[in-house]
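Obj: model holo form, ligand = fe (ii) ion.
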Amino acid sequence: MTFTLPPLPYAYDALGSYMSKETLEYHHDKHHQAYVTNGNNALKGTEWEGKSLEEIVKGSFGKNPAVFNNAGQHYNHIHFWKWMKPGGGGNMPGDLEKQIIADFGSVAKMKEDFIQAGVTQFGSGWCWLAVRIGKIEVMKTPNGESPLVHGARPILGCDVWEHSYYIDYRNRRPDYLKVFVDNLVNWDYVAEMYEAAR
Ligand SMILES: [Fe+2]
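Output (holo structure tokens):
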């Protein structure tokens, strides 16, 4: 398959001051587009040409950095746009909430652990909620890695590369993570990925 850039699922100014039009224009149109373009170039002539994106991400990890870095980031960003929505945050579907309470004790504790993972990811990377053998856990990964290459299935991820927050939050990564969790997360899409992963 050839990678293509999916359109942003809402208007560039839809997330208001939580994530600005300028950030989304650069992040989606420039950064994600670069992963698509460079990924397609890196794939040419490799054994992963014609494979699904997930097969490419898992298969190239540790074997072909040029393919993996771009395919990994393409996968992460496809979902990242959908893990946010205007008027996000708030309540989550009941089945997901039940599992989070079972695994973390409370929704508040899950949010605290998720933010802490993002704050403590040294340098560029992602923090995650992921499903591993029926349980939800918090993870963090560097660069373009995701739970997919560490034996789990991602159901929520937050991009903590500086390109995701520096225009709006400068060096205040903790503030960006708190806003992401409280005001941006599309819990319906998280629940959809949870149902598919369990
Ligand atoms: Fe990004």
